[in-house]
Amino acid sequence: MATTHTHSSARLMMAPSVLLLLAWMIIPLSMTIYFSFLRYNLLMPGMEEFAGVMNYTFFLSDPAFFAALTNTLLLVGGVLLITVVGGIAFALLLDQPMFGQGIVRILVIAPFFIMPTVSALVWKNMLMNPVNGLFAWIAKLFGLQPIDWLANYPLLSIILIVAWQWLPFATLILLTALQSLDEEQKEAAEMDGAGAISKLLYIILPHMARAITVVILIETIFLLSVFAEILVTTNGGPGYQSTNITYLVYAQALLQFDIGGASAGGIVAVVLANIVAFFLIRLIGKNLES
């Protein structure tokens, strides 16, 4: 009886927070769904009318949508590849005893605390600028022609900028997993004649598998909504070469003033993100059970 009373009291105390969270999520989502069925343009206030699924049909049949979807997948995949491989490499490096190890770890993790807008501005003006940027200076140093990265390789440039931001996160998670590895296992493998590659493939990577899965899950959820880096550097261009779904929805709403079409795009983006999250959660669940 006392246990039931305790559970009831706990639910009662949690209820306000749960209701506030539901309102925080459901009200904006409900409004977005409502607007997605309207022909609603900000330049024509008071002229809203019901449009059915027209906004969804237009958004899903727009060639820009398929370009944005492809760019989104390439962006997520490229950043994950760089951060997971780079994170494993940095974790292995930082796990070695070295002078000033604490300072080195702080410096490696520091980029994760820089705001995306500031990070994108630094890369755009100080590193990738074809006239005064660091990459241009290095190219001239070797007698090469500087590259205008944001004009010639816009999506690759965005991938590099975002990967630089998320690499410290992957490194931190993977380093924590690596430090939980029992040293006796590595010593036993060395006594059996295992080399560095064998230890990496058969001991270290299997031990880090769960941490790698967590990194992929968390990063994917956030990478599907990359926006600031694109807005600051390329504005989705040239053409649609660096436009992802998030930026396409923004352009539809605040550049073309089409709230109905943008709302439909937002719902499509939410559905796609939930599909990806569903499979990733199943993947991480199986990984944790094994």
Automatic annotation (TrEMBL):
<comment type="similarity">
    <text>Belongs to the binding-protein-dependent transport system permease family.</text>
</comment>
<feature type="transmembrane region" description="Helical">
    <location>
        <begin position="211"/>
        <end position="232"/>
    </location>
</feature>
<feature type="domain" description="ABC transmembrane type-1">
    <location>
        <begin position="69"/>
        <end position="280"/>
    </location>
</feature>
<feature type="transmembrane region" description="Helical">
    <location>
        <begin position="64"/>
        <end position="94"/>
    </location>
</feature>
<keyword id="KW-0812">Transmembrane</keyword>
<feature type="transmembrane region" description="Helical">
    <location>
        <begin position="12"/>
        <end position="37"/>
    </location>
</feature>
<keyword id="KW-1003">Cell membrane</keyword>
<dbReference type="InterPro" id="IPR000515">
    <property type="entry name" value="MetI-like"/>
</dbReference>
<dbReference type="GO" id="GO:0005886">
    <property type="term" value="C:plasma membrane"/>
</dbReference>
<feature type="transmembrane region" description="Helical">
    <location>
        <begin position="264"/>
        <end position="284"/>
    </location>
</feature>
<protein>
    <submittedName>
        <fullName>Sugar ABC transporter permease</fullName>
    </submittedName>
</protein>
<keyword id="KW-1133">Transmembrane helix</keyword>
<dbReference type="GO" id="GO:0055085">
    <property type="term" value="P:transmembrane transport"/>
</dbReference>
<feature type="transmembrane region" description="Helical">
    <location>
        <begin position="155"/>
        <end position="178"/>
    </location>
</feature>
<keyword id="KW-0813">Transport</keyword>
<dbReference type="Pfam" id="PF00528">
    <property type="entry name" value="BPD_transp_1"/>
</dbReference>
<feature type="transmembrane region" description="Helical">
    <location>
        <begin position="106"/>
        <end position="123"/>
    </location>
</feature>
<dbReference type="InterPro" id="IPR035906">
    <property type="entry name" value="MetI-like_sf"/>
</dbReference>
<keyword id="KW-0472">Membrane</keyword>
